[in-house]
TrEMBL record:
Gene3D superfamilies: 3.30.300.30, 3.40.50.980, Luciferase, Domain 3. Pfam families: AMP-binding, AMP-binding_C. This is 2,3-dihydroxybenzoate-AMP ligase. Residues 446-521 form the AMP-binding enzyme C-terminal domain. GO terms for biological process: siderophore biosynthetic process. Residues 33-395 form the AMP-dependent synthetase/ligase domain. InterPro entries: AMP-bd_C, AMP-bd_C_sf, AMP-binding_CS, AMP-dep_synth/lig_dom, ATP-dep_AMP-bd_enzyme, DHB_AMP_lig. Belongs to the ATP-dependent AMP-binding enzyme family. It comes from Andreprevotia lacus DSM 23236. The keyword Magnesium does not apply. The keyword Translocase does not apply. It comes from the Bacteria. Pathway: Siderophore biosynthesis.
């Protein structure tokens, strides 16, 4: 099989090294599940509402769906946009696609017409898998719009009531022998948080991803008795593989899916299913802490809470062990690859005050100044990384890749970090033009481009403003032109353009001009300081 066009492979000498080290084991995701279905056939793999699937059943469903997907014409390397909430079918669909070598593109449930239209056209997707409706949103209406506007030939597969589309339930065919992918092939495309106009797609191979999954499961000490509550959106890299649901499958444990991450849904599931480990973003960890004080629920089974995706304040970190009766693990990762964990034997100070250290001794870390020179030990600089599960390039993005990677293949994370002598990293800030809204990443340029499409907007600059709960919210500075426009009208305009809700600016401020840097660029640091000062003045009343 030729490699996927638009995928940047690791140079041969690196690939050989990662194989020789035993990191890349030549196993596909589909093989991994097959193996577990043999050793743990009758153990429960997945719990979703009333449904409980054993390993053998998940495996059987994947085979049956693979046959159905083949029947509707999907073949190896076809891209399939998968946008599902936390439902069991997500895994049947993923493993079925993995088995035929088709490539899921993992969209988030929050994505709307603009994002889905982009993924479908950019990846030239043949199919789009959705739920009929979830969390109050009708995905079939979205699919209709996407088909009408950009992809008339798109096949739409629906979990639930399909209407004019293909019901997933109609695709469970008799399993048949199908050619599978190689472990070095791209398994799926994840989304980047992004800092440019449109989200980039991240190609991950079976080999590289499974290495990160196995090593993560190991670091977290996962075993057959572990029960993982998946409360974050299931397709995100953190709950998928760090060690997440895949790590639990690797270990032969049990995954419990929660439709909503709030305490009212999650706490009863923890008690009923004896959940041992779960993962949250910082704002949710804060809500759980507050709720645990108010409501007595049996959380005794919970041994570890992982928190990552955005900065966790050390004060909150310190409250977690007593507040929730479990150990905290900080996780600093990225869909592009590198994941850092605090470890079981780290001191309380390291767990509360750092974002851990890399999974692999072969994760190469560089901390550089603005001129790409190493900073003195312990000082803050740009984090760059290269390693056995960090991509060498975004999918179909040769020009962007020249900026996002060094000539020798290091990924420029856009994060500002310092490293302790122990190797632990502390995230100190961000150089990329992005807002981290409680773990949800908003690329400033993407929202600015939408704003600029409004006739009353002459120029737009989106920056982060501090928020006690989300950590950061977004503030759009606007230079208006022509007829005056109200903030609500701009937000309505953005919604009409079909962007995810979390990208809508939390605040809009009109100005006459933007402060400029020495070289004449918009000075976003000055804008951030401006809004921060306004907010603290307002807080003082
Ligand atoms: C995770 O992945 P992404 O791709 O949504 O976002 C990656 C970015 C990082 O570059 C960093 O800017 C930020 O999210 N981030 C953190 C953080 N974890 C991620 N910033 C501060 N502290 C942390 N603990 O967010 C992700 C992927 C796998 C595991 C965990 C998180």
């Amino acid at each position: 099989m030729s490699t996927l066009d638009g995928f940047t492979p690791w140079p041969a000498e690196f690939a050989e090294r990662y194989r020789a080290l035993g990191y890349w084991q030549g196993q596909t995701m589909g093989d991994m599940l097959r193996e577990r279905a043999q050793t743990h056939a009758n153990r429960e793999a997945l719990i979703c509402g009333e449904r409980r699937w054993r390993y053998a059943e998940l495996d059987r469903r994947a085979d049956a769906l693979a046959a159905g997907f083949a029947r509707i014409g999907l073949v190896a390397q076809d891209r399939v946009v998968v946008q599902l909430p936390n439902v069991a079918e997500f895994f049947a669909v993923c493993f079925a696609l993995f088995r035929i070598g088709a490539i899921p593109v993992f969209a988030l449930p929050a994505h709307r017409r603009a994002e889905i239209g982009h993924f479908v056209t950019f990846a030239e997707a043949k199919a789009y898998v959705i739920a009929d409706q979830a969390l109050g949103f009708n995905y079939r209406a979205l699919a209709r719009q996407v088909k009408a506007e950009v992809a008339p030939a798109l096949q739409v597969v629906v979990v639930g009531e399909a209407e004019e589309f293909i019901a997933l339930d109609s695709l469970y065919d008799t399993p048949c022998a199908l050619p599978g992918p190689a472990a070095g092939d791209v398994a799926f495309l994840q989304l980047s948080g992004g800092s440019t106009g449109l989200p980039k797609l991240i190609p991950r191979t079976h080999d590289d991803y499974l290495y990160s999954v196995r090593a993560s499961a190991d670091i977290c000490g996962l075993g057959v008795d572990d029960v993982y509550l998946c409360a974050l959106p299931v397709a995100h890299n953190f709950p998928f593989s760090s060690p997440g649901t895949l790590g639990v499958f690797h270990a032969g444990g049990k995954v419990v899916l929660a439709m909503q991450p709030g305490p009212e849904t999650a706490f009863p599931l923890i008690a009923a299913e004896r959940v041992t480990i779960t993962a949250l973003v910082p704002p949710l960890a804060m809500i759980w802490l507050d709720a645990a004080q108010r409501r007595r629920q049996d959380m005794a089974s919970l041994r570890m809470l992982q928190v990552g995706g955005a900065r966790l304040a050390p004060e909150v970190a310190q409250r977690i062990p007593a507040g929730l009766g479990c150990r905290l693990q900080q996780v600093f990762g990225m869909a592009e690859g590198l994941v850092n964990y605090t470890r079981d034997d780290d001191s309380d100070a390291l767990v509360a005050g750092t974002q851990g250290h890399a999974i692999s001794p072969h994760d190469e870390i560089r901390i550089l100044d603005d001129d790409d020179q190493p900073v003195p030990a312990g000082e803050v600089g740009h984090l760059l990384t290269r390693g056995p599960y960090t991509i060498r390039g975004y999918y179909r993005a040769p020009e962007h890749n020249l900026r996002a990677f060094t000539a020798d293949g290091f990924y420029r994370t856009g994060d500002l970090v310092r490293q302790l002598p122990s190797g632990h990293l502390v995230v100190e800030g961000r150089a990329k033009d992005q807002i981290n809204r409680g773990g949800e990443k908003v690329a400033a340029a993407e929202v600015e481009e939408h704003l600029l499409a409004h006739p009353a907007v002459h120029d737009a600059a989106l920056v982060a403003m501090p928020d006690a709960y989300l950590g950061e919210k977004s503030c759009a500075f606007i230079i208006a032109q022509g007829a005056p426009v109200k903030p609500v009208e701009l937000n309505r305009f953005l919604r009409q353009r079909g962007i995810a809700d979390y990208k809508i600016p939390d605040r809009i401020v009109f100005v006459d001009r933007f402060p400029k840097t020495g070289v004449g660029k918009v000075d976003k640091r000055a804008l951030r300081e401006h809004i921060q000062a306004q907010l603290s003045l307002a807080a003082q009343g």
